[in-house]
Amino acid sequence: MKFFSVSGLVVASEIDLPCRPADAAATPDVTIRHAPTPTDLPGSVEAGPTWRIAGEQFLLRVPGVARFLLTEGREITFEIEDDAPPEDIAVFVIGTVFGILLHQRRQVVLHASAVRVGDRAVLFCGASGAGKSTMAAALNQKGYALLTDDVCAIDTNASGAFVAHSDGRRLKLWEQAIKGLNMAERKVGAVRAQLEKYYIEPHEPTGEALPLGAVYVLREFRAPFKEGIERPNVVDAALFVRRNAYRPRLVAAMSQKDSYFRLAAGIAAGPGVFLLTRPLQFKALPGVIEGLERHWTELGLIGATP
User: Fold this and answer.
1) How far is CA 168 from the centre of its chain?
2) Which residue, among 111, 116, 205, 213, has the nearest Cα to 162 in the 3D structure?
3) Which of 83, 109, 207, 213 has its CA 20 to 30 A from that of 144?
4) Alpha helices, DSSP H, located in 142-218
5) Tens digit of each residue's pLDDT (9 = 90 or more) over 147-182
6) 251 secondary structure, DSSP code
């Protein structure tokens, strides 16, 4: 077994994961192993084209890659299909599979990347292709520690504040973004052989869970939208948060609707949800970051630049 840090948890795994190592002496929160995995779950109460739920078990099939059985938020077994390579197994484990496991652990999971700003977590939400990883990578280049990429697990601390868990996974960027951000020297391997998408080693990743400071929903700058940052009303803000749940259909299937409603309402009324409308061109990123830093100064997340 090898030990990794994923979404604030210690994971013991029989396969390599593109994540930071964890202390092998620690008691694992989650175990991942290669073992016979069923093709169906008798007594399923919820089901989709590629998944089944029965009690505290969740069966997921990724055609041509593997079947994954998740049990009680603490164990993942998998059985490979069609001789899929290990890197294909790993990318689904730390993505979709781990997102489902976090739901089993009754955590709220957003489709978001996050960086550390001061002593807070700043999240960037959006659908696939919205630029979450690119924004986090650009900010990481400027010295903001990476908290998580693509999957953001959120919990409450002892005082009831929402906190985002740190994650040990590497950034994933398309080749176009790597060139646009001048990050070729930080490439550490392909995500999947058939994709021009690569893992990037972040600078100074943070290992702490941090209170939420702000949540930005990314939107492309085009008519009729206005470039910049705006704060929607509380109702719309809560809807934006709920729409950016990781695998939204599973929220209801796994009885998480109330948790997401509380999170959405709490963030909208507290740290704040903001629409960030910006051009997608890489040359525009320095200006976007300058605008974010001015906003963070206004929010009190960082001090004013002298």
Assistant:
1) 11
2) 213
3) 109
4) 175-180
5) 999 889 998 877 778 899 888 778 899 999 999 999
6) H
Please tell me the distance from the alpha carbon of residue 163 to that of residue 27, in angstroms, as a whole number: 23
DSSP code for 186: G
pLDDT of the residue at 223: 77
Q: How far is CA 281 from CA 17, 146, 176, 278, in A?
A: 31, 22, 11, 9
Tell me: the pLDDT tens digits for 215-225? Answer: 999 998 887 88
Q: Just give the CATH number of 109-299.
A: 3.40.50
Place 191 in a pLDDT band, splitting at 50, 70 and 90.
confident
What gap in Å lies between CA 35 and CA 12, rounded to an integer?
15
Classify residue 41 by its DSSP letter. -
Residues of the chain with CATH 3.40.50: 109-299
CA–CA distance, 50 with 17 (Å, rounded to integer): 23
CB 156 within 8 A of CB 195: no
3-state class (DSSP) for residue 22: coil
